[in-house]
């Protein structure tokens, strides 16, 4: 019988290992992680700017805390190596509501404290993740008129919960834009794209983000390093946005190199890099329309997690040799009574299991 646990104590604190029940080490099983995107509560979004800002209504807060509580106690979900939050955790990214940003961040971290993985790893050694990110970033897009761009420093990784930025998180320095980390035989690379709000041509779909040259450079450096690392078999890309068009089969060519987008064509460069270095999985959120859950883009299987899981669900992935298997779970639901009480009316449950093909580089 095999169990997986964080090793407590000394330099190994925070590292994972697979152990037999008699303590003998065995080969670690494939990387397993949680992916959750698009926390933001749509129905509350338009309340921003009102005197009483209720993005984190007591019910919303309680429901997410209950979801984390489930993840932290369910034997399958709890047994993850890390959690990757795929963007739009908050609704604060516009940088012109600093008070609201501070309040949302406080609530976010208070809720995150209920996630067992976060509690277990915060402040401990996470060096086995070989985490890398640029030292700072410039906030692009979603900035108020007259805003002077200045570098925003990234914080040092201090837990196995890694949040990347979406268009609603743009100014949140706690979340990563470009970053890279390793888990088992897999290198995970994330990058950022800024929101440009392009109109879709009639009857078609066009994603609405622009990838900077610096982001592409980061992806290229990290992919090249991963491809030359003999311990790496899979390269996973993650971004809040997709790099492919959202048709059901992901067959349409990319056509974001247009006037409104400054003729930026960096998604083609990203896809070319994936082809060159053998990236076999792409994860994104953002487009929670429910229509385009999985597909292919060059060598990559693409999972639009916002469609697969919806903005009220999450998934646990396992990176096996030739496929990624992911289990989709619903999140908890809570209602508020007129008297102000909060009742959790639905607890998380497993909805389905799906898989997409992987092609290891070695
Ligand atoms: Fe988004």
Blueprint of the fold:
Layout: E1 2-6, E2 16-20, E3 32-36, H1 42-45, H2 58-73, H3 75-78, E4 82-85, H4 98-112, H5 116-121, E5 136-138, E6 151-153, E7 161-163, E8 179-183, E9 186-190, E10 194-195, E11 209-210, H6 213-227, E12 234-239, H7 266-277, E13 281-284, E14 294-297, E15 300-304, H8 305-309, E16 313-319, E17 323-330, E18 333-336, E19 342-346, E20 350-357
Parallel strand pairs: 3-4, 4-7, 9-12, 12-13, 13-15
Antiparallel strand pairs: 1-2, 3-16, 5-6, 8-9, 10-11, 14-15, 16-17, 17-20, 18-19
Bound molecules: fe (ii) ion.
> What ligands are attached or bound here?
fe (ii) ion
Counting DSSP H or I runs of 4 or more residues, the number of helices is 8
Provide the β-strand percentage band.
Answer: 25-35%
CATH class assignment of the largest domain? Alpha Beta
Q: How many β-strand stretches?
A: 20
Class based on secondary structure composition and strand pairing? alpha/beta
CATH architecture designation of the largest domain: 2-Layer Sandwich
CATH superfamily of the largest domain: GpdQ, beta-strand dimerisation domain
State the low-pLDDT regions, or none: 1-20
Widest beta sheet: strand line-up: 7-4-3-16-17-20
Average of the residue pLDDT scores: 80
- What series of H and E elements makes up the topology? EEEHHHEHHEEEEEEEHEHEEEHEEEEE
Distance between the termini: 28 Å
**Radius of gyration based on Cα positions:** 20 Å
Sheet with most strands: 6 strands, mixed
Percentage of residues in helical conformation: 10-25%
Count the domains: 2
Cα shape: globular
CATH topology of the largest domain, by name, is Transcription Regulator spoIIAA
